[in-house]
Amino acid sequence: MAAWDHGRVSRTHADRCPGVLRPWIADDGAIVRLRLVGGALTSQMLTDLMAVAAEWADGSVLLTKRANLQLRGIEPAQNEDGSSCVPPEFVDAITDAGFLPAPTHELVRNIMVSPLSGRFGGRADLFPVARQLDEALCAEPLFAGLSARFLFVLDDGRGDLVDRTLDLGAMAVDDENAQIRIGSHGWGEVIELDAVPEVLLDLAERFVRARGDHPDAPWHIDELDVPIVETHHARDLRTQVTSPFPPRGELTQDDGRTAEIVDVPDGVLTHKLATQILAKAGRDLIVTPWRSVVLPDLGEE
Question: Distance between CA atoms of 299 and 6, rounded to whole angstroms?
Fold first, then answer.
Protein backbone atom coordinates (compact mmCIF):
# COMPACT_ATOMS: atom_id res chain seq x y z
CA MET A 1 0.00 0.00 0.00
CA ALA A 2 1.94 2.98 -1.22
CA ALA A 3 1.60 6.27 0.61
CA TRP A 4 4.00 8.23 -1.53
CA ASP A 5 6.05 7.86 -4.69
CA HIS A 6 9.55 6.45 -4.42
CA GLY A 7 12.73 8.04 -5.67
CA ARG A 8 13.53 11.63 -6.41
CA VAL A 9 10.63 14.04 -5.93
CA SER A 10 10.71 17.74 -6.68
CA ARG A 11 9.56 19.58 -3.56
CA THR A 12 8.65 23.25 -3.60
CA HIS A 13 7.48 23.64 0.01
CA ALA A 14 7.62 22.02 3.41
CA ASP A 15 4.98 19.42 4.18
CA ARG A 16 1.64 20.73 5.42
CA CYS A 17 0.39 17.72 7.34
CA PRO A 18 -1.78 19.16 10.14
CA GLY A 19 -1.36 19.09 13.88
CA VAL A 20 -2.95 20.86 16.82
CA LEU A 21 -0.52 23.76 16.64
CA ARG A 22 -0.43 23.74 12.84
CA PRO A 23 -4.02 23.20 11.66
CA TRP A 24 -5.19 22.91 8.09
CA ILE A 25 -7.87 25.45 7.30
CA ALA A 26 -10.67 23.92 5.20
CA ASP A 27 -13.96 25.39 4.02
CA ASP A 28 -15.75 24.11 7.12
CA GLY A 29 -13.10 25.26 9.58
CA ALA A 30 -9.81 24.04 10.98
CA ILE A 31 -8.66 20.41 10.83
CA VAL A 32 -6.24 19.06 13.44
CA ARG A 33 -4.56 15.67 13.66
CA LEU A 34 -3.86 13.93 16.96
CA ARG A 35 -0.98 11.47 16.79
CA LEU A 36 -1.22 8.22 18.73
CA VAL A 37 1.77 5.94 19.18
CA GLY A 38 0.65 2.65 17.70
CA GLY A 39 -2.95 3.86 17.84
CA ALA A 40 -3.01 3.44 21.62
CA LEU A 41 -5.15 5.58 23.92
CA THR A 42 -7.24 5.12 27.05
CA SER A 43 -10.99 5.09 27.43
CA GLN A 44 -10.74 8.26 29.48
CA MET A 45 -8.84 9.98 26.67
CA LEU A 46 -11.56 9.05 24.19
CA THR A 47 -14.28 10.19 26.60
CA ASP A 48 -12.57 13.56 26.97
CA LEU A 49 -11.95 13.84 23.22
CA MET A 50 -15.60 13.26 22.35
CA ALA A 51 -16.49 16.10 24.72
CA VAL A 52 -13.93 18.33 23.02
CA ALA A 53 -15.31 17.37 19.61
CA ALA A 54 -18.84 18.23 20.73
CA GLU A 55 -17.82 21.64 22.08
CA TRP A 56 -15.21 22.77 19.57
CA ALA A 57 -15.53 20.68 16.38
CA ASP A 58 -18.27 18.98 14.37
CA GLY A 59 -18.97 16.40 17.08
CA SER A 60 -17.29 13.38 15.48
CA VAL A 61 -13.74 12.00 15.45
CA LEU A 62 -12.10 10.75 12.25
CA LEU A 63 -9.77 7.73 12.09
CA THR A 64 -6.80 8.01 9.71
CA LYS A 65 -4.90 5.36 7.76
CA ARG A 66 -1.96 5.82 10.13
CA ALA A 67 -4.10 4.98 13.18
CA ASN A 68 -4.29 8.60 14.26
CA LEU A 69 -7.32 10.78 14.98
CA GLN A 70 -8.61 13.99 13.44
CA LEU A 71 -11.08 16.69 14.40
CA ARG A 72 -12.54 19.11 11.90
CA GLY A 73 -14.98 21.99 11.76
CA ILE A 74 -13.11 23.97 14.43
CA GLU A 75 -13.65 27.72 14.32
CA PRO A 76 -10.21 29.12 13.44
CA ALA A 77 -8.47 31.93 15.29
CA GLN A 78 -5.51 34.12 14.32
CA ASN A 79 -1.97 34.41 15.58
CA GLU A 80 -0.39 37.80 16.10
CA ASP A 81 1.26 37.52 12.68
CA GLY A 82 -2.10 36.99 11.01
CA SER A 83 -1.68 33.26 10.36
CA SER A 84 -4.51 30.90 11.22
CA CYS A 85 -4.56 28.77 14.35
CA VAL A 86 -7.08 27.16 16.66
CA PRO A 87 -8.33 28.86 19.84
CA PRO A 88 -5.97 28.55 22.82
CA GLU A 89 -8.85 27.14 24.89
CA PHE A 90 -9.13 24.29 22.39
CA VAL A 91 -5.38 23.61 22.67
CA ASP A 92 -5.73 23.56 26.47
CA ALA A 93 -8.58 21.06 26.25
CA ILE A 94 -6.61 18.77 23.91
CA THR A 95 -3.58 19.01 26.18
CA ASP A 96 -5.62 18.23 29.30
CA ALA A 97 -7.03 15.17 27.51
CA GLY A 98 -3.47 13.84 26.99
CA PHE A 99 -3.17 14.27 23.23
CA LEU A 100 -0.35 16.82 23.17
CA PRO A 101 2.45 15.42 25.37
CA ALA A 102 5.28 16.98 23.33
CA PRO A 103 4.19 20.23 21.61
CA THR A 104 7.55 20.79 19.91
CA HIS A 105 7.45 17.30 18.39
CA GLU A 106 3.72 16.75 17.87
CA LEU A 107 4.03 16.57 14.08
CA VAL A 108 6.75 13.90 14.06
CA ARG A 109 5.26 11.33 16.48
CA ASN A 110 4.34 9.05 13.56
CA ILE A 111 4.84 5.52 14.87
CA MET A 112 2.68 2.63 13.64
CA VAL A 113 2.59 -0.73 15.45
CA SER A 114 0.82 -3.99 14.72
CA PRO A 115 -2.39 -3.26 16.68
CA LEU A 116 -2.70 -6.68 18.33
CA SER A 117 0.99 -6.85 19.25
CA GLY A 118 1.55 -8.53 22.61
CA ARG A 119 -2.05 -9.67 22.87
CA PHE A 120 -2.87 -11.99 19.98
CA GLY A 121 -0.44 -13.78 17.69
CA GLY A 122 2.72 -12.08 16.53
CA ARG A 123 6.26 -12.91 17.57
CA ALA A 124 6.89 -10.12 20.06
CA ASP A 125 5.19 -7.26 21.87
CA LEU A 126 6.43 -4.12 20.12
CA PHE A 127 4.39 -1.58 22.08
CA PRO A 128 7.18 -1.17 24.69
CA VAL A 129 9.63 -0.60 21.82
CA ALA A 130 7.28 2.02 20.35
CA ARG A 131 6.94 3.86 23.66
CA GLN A 132 10.72 3.94 24.12
CA LEU A 133 11.13 5.18 20.55
CA ASP A 134 8.56 7.93 21.09
CA GLU A 135 10.13 9.05 24.37
CA ALA A 136 13.61 9.28 22.86
CA LEU A 137 12.30 10.93 19.68
CA CYS A 138 10.59 13.69 21.66
CA ALA A 139 13.59 14.20 23.95
CA GLU A 140 15.91 15.25 21.10
CA PRO A 141 15.32 18.74 19.63
CA LEU A 142 16.96 17.69 16.35
CA PHE A 143 14.06 15.38 15.50
CA ALA A 144 11.59 18.25 15.42
CA GLY A 145 13.19 18.81 12.00
CA LEU A 146 11.70 15.62 10.56
CA SER A 147 8.91 15.94 8.05
CA ALA A 148 5.44 15.49 9.53
CA ARG A 149 5.01 12.69 6.97
CA PHE A 150 8.10 10.74 8.10
CA LEU A 151 6.86 7.36 9.30
CA PHE A 152 8.18 4.64 11.62
CA VAL A 153 6.52 1.21 11.24
CA LEU A 154 6.92 -1.65 13.74
CA ASP A 155 5.58 -5.02 12.58
CA ASP A 156 5.48 -7.67 15.30
CA GLY A 157 6.31 -10.44 12.85
CA ARG A 158 2.82 -11.35 11.73
CA GLY A 159 3.18 -9.26 8.56
CA ASP A 160 0.11 -7.03 8.92
CA LEU A 161 2.20 -3.89 8.33
CA VAL A 162 5.04 -5.30 6.25
CA ASP A 163 3.60 -3.91 3.01
CA ARG A 164 3.22 -0.39 4.36
CA THR A 165 5.36 2.27 2.75
CA LEU A 166 7.65 3.63 5.47
CA ASP A 167 10.76 5.59 6.22
CA LEU A 168 12.21 3.52 9.07
CA GLY A 169 11.00 0.53 10.96
CA ALA A 170 11.58 -2.95 12.31
CA MET A 171 9.99 -6.37 11.95
CA ALA A 172 10.23 -8.98 14.68
CA VAL A 173 11.84 -12.26 13.63
CA ASP A 174 11.39 -13.93 17.03
CA ASP A 175 10.49 -12.89 20.58
CA GLU A 176 13.85 -11.17 21.20
CA ASN A 177 15.07 -9.85 17.84
CA ALA A 178 13.92 -7.75 14.90
CA GLN A 179 15.29 -6.76 11.51
CA ILE A 180 15.68 -3.05 10.84
CA ARG A 181 13.99 -1.51 7.81
CA ILE A 182 15.48 1.49 5.97
CA GLY A 183 13.22 3.10 3.41
CA SER A 184 10.48 1.13 1.71
CA HIS A 185 12.78 -1.50 0.26
CA GLY A 186 15.97 -1.58 2.32
CA TRP A 187 16.72 -3.97 5.18
CA GLY A 188 19.29 -3.57 7.93
CA GLU A 189 20.73 -5.83 10.60
CA VAL A 190 18.86 -8.23 12.86
CA ILE A 191 19.26 -6.80 16.36
CA GLU A 192 17.85 -7.24 19.86
CA LEU A 193 14.52 -5.54 20.48
CA ASP A 194 15.97 -3.36 23.23
CA ALA A 195 18.36 -1.82 20.70
CA VAL A 196 15.71 -0.97 18.10
CA PRO A 197 14.85 2.58 19.30
CA GLU A 198 18.49 3.66 19.44
CA VAL A 199 19.28 2.23 16.00
CA LEU A 200 16.20 3.76 14.38
CA LEU A 201 16.91 7.18 15.85
CA ASP A 202 20.54 7.03 14.75
CA LEU A 203 19.26 6.46 11.21
CA ALA A 204 16.69 9.23 11.63
CA GLU A 205 19.46 11.60 12.70
CA ARG A 206 21.41 10.75 9.56
CA PHE A 207 18.33 11.56 7.51
CA VAL A 208 17.71 14.90 9.21
CA ARG A 209 21.31 15.97 8.61
CA ALA A 210 21.25 14.71 5.02
CA ARG A 211 17.96 16.39 4.06
CA GLY A 212 18.87 19.87 5.29
CA ASP A 213 16.38 22.53 6.32
CA HIS A 214 15.61 24.26 3.03
CA PRO A 215 11.96 24.51 1.86
CA ASP A 216 12.39 21.83 -0.81
CA ALA A 217 14.12 19.35 1.50
CA PRO A 218 13.08 15.68 1.05
CA TRP A 219 10.27 14.41 3.23
CA HIS A 220 11.21 10.73 3.01
CA ILE A 221 14.28 8.50 3.05
CA ASP A 222 13.31 7.13 -0.37
CA GLU A 223 13.73 10.64 -1.81
CA LEU A 224 17.38 11.15 -0.82
CA ASP A 225 19.94 11.33 -3.61
CA VAL A 226 22.56 9.65 -1.39
CA PRO A 227 21.55 6.70 0.87
CA ILE A 228 21.99 7.13 4.62
CA VAL A 229 23.70 3.72 4.84
CA GLU A 230 26.41 2.38 2.57
CA THR A 231 25.15 -1.18 2.36
CA HIS A 232 21.89 -2.99 2.94
CA HIS A 233 21.51 -6.46 4.36
CA ALA A 234 19.64 -9.39 2.89
CA ARG A 235 16.06 -9.67 4.00
CA ASP A 236 15.70 -12.30 6.71
CA LEU A 237 13.54 -15.18 5.53
CA ARG A 238 11.47 -14.91 8.72
CA THR A 239 10.13 -11.56 7.52
CA GLN A 240 8.62 -13.14 4.42
CA VAL A 241 5.13 -13.32 5.89
CA THR A 242 1.94 -11.34 5.44
CA SER A 243 -1.24 -11.44 7.44
CA PRO A 244 -4.57 -9.64 7.05
CA PHE A 245 -6.04 -7.94 10.09
CA PRO A 246 -8.80 -10.04 11.69
CA PRO A 247 -12.41 -9.12 10.88
CA ARG A 248 -14.72 -7.43 13.34
CA GLY A 249 -15.86 -9.43 16.33
CA GLU A 250 -14.34 -11.11 19.36
CA LEU A 251 -11.11 -13.08 19.61
CA THR A 252 -9.33 -14.77 22.49
CA GLN A 253 -6.05 -13.12 23.47
CA ASP A 254 -2.94 -15.13 24.19
CA ASP A 255 -3.49 -14.53 27.94
CA GLY A 256 -7.02 -15.95 27.82
CA ARG A 257 -8.87 -12.65 27.97
CA THR A 258 -11.03 -11.34 25.15
CA ALA A 259 -10.50 -8.56 22.64
CA GLU A 260 -13.21 -7.13 20.41
CA ILE A 261 -12.66 -5.42 17.07
CA VAL A 262 -15.29 -2.80 16.28
CA ASP A 263 -15.67 -1.38 12.77
CA VAL A 264 -15.92 2.38 12.38
CA PRO A 265 -17.87 2.94 9.13
CA ASP A 266 -16.08 5.34 6.80
CA GLY A 267 -13.64 6.05 9.62
CA VAL A 268 -16.14 8.42 11.29
CA LEU A 269 -16.46 7.84 15.03
CA THR A 270 -19.80 9.39 15.94
CA HIS A 271 -20.95 10.21 19.44
CA LYS A 272 -23.36 7.26 19.32
CA LEU A 273 -20.71 4.74 18.26
CA ALA A 274 -18.16 6.12 20.74
CA THR A 275 -20.71 5.72 23.53
CA GLN A 276 -21.27 2.09 22.53
CA ILE A 277 -17.52 1.43 22.42
CA LEU A 278 -16.88 3.06 25.77
CA ALA A 279 -19.70 1.06 27.38
CA LYS A 280 -17.86 -2.17 26.47
CA ALA A 281 -14.24 -1.07 26.77
CA GLY A 282 -11.80 -1.58 29.58
CA ARG A 283 -9.01 0.86 30.33
CA ASP A 284 -7.27 0.72 26.95
CA LEU A 285 -8.25 1.14 23.30
CA ILE A 286 -6.27 0.74 20.09
CA VAL A 287 -7.11 2.56 16.87
CA THR A 288 -6.16 0.51 13.80
CA PRO A 289 -5.15 1.69 10.31
CA TRP A 290 -8.20 -0.16 8.94
CA ARG A 291 -11.04 2.02 10.25
CA SER A 292 -11.62 -0.01 13.36
CA VAL A 293 -10.98 0.09 17.09
CA VAL A 294 -9.70 -2.76 19.26
CA LEU A 295 -11.13 -3.17 22.74
CA PRO A 296 -8.46 -5.33 24.40
CA ASP A 297 -8.11 -7.06 27.77
CA LEU A 298 -11.80 -7.75 28.36
CA GLY A 299 -12.86 -10.26 30.99
CA GLU A 300 -10.85 -12.13 33.58
CA GLU A 301 -7.24 -13.14 32.97
Answer: 45
d(CA 24, CA 148): 13
Q: Which one, of 166, 117, 167, lies nearest residue 286 by Cα?
A: 117
CA angle 153, 157, 158 (to 5 degrees): 100
CA angle 34, 39, 45 (to 5 degrees): 60
What does the DSSP 8-state code read for residue 92?
A: H
Who contacts 197 (Cβ-Cβ below 8 Å, separation ≥6)? Answer: 129, 132, 133, 136
CA distance 134 to 112: 11
Domain 111-239: give its CATH code. 3.30.413.10
Whole-structure pTM value: 0.94
- DSSP-H helix ranges across the chain: 43-56, 88-96, 127-139, 196-211, 271-280
**Sheet of strand 40-42, all strands in order from the earlier edge strand to the far edge:** 40-42, 284-287, 292-298, 258-263, 249-252
Beta bridge partners of 63: 69
What average pLDDT is seen over the chain?
A: 93
Cα-Cα-Cα-Cα dihedral of 264, 270, 271, 272, to 10°? -60
Task: Note the Cα 75 to chain centre separation in Å.
Answer: 26
Over residues 27-83, the pLDDT tens digits come to 899 999 999 999 999 999 999 999 999 999 999 999 999 999 999 999 988 888 878
DSSP state at residue 236: P
Residue 280 phi/psi, 5-degree rounding, is -95, -25
The full set of domain ranges for the chain reads 24-102, 111-239, 249-298
CA 196 to CA 170: how far, in whole Å?
Answer: 7
Taking only the tens place, the pLDDT of each residue in 231-284 is 889 999 999 999 999 999 999 999 999 999 999 999 999 999 999 999 999 999
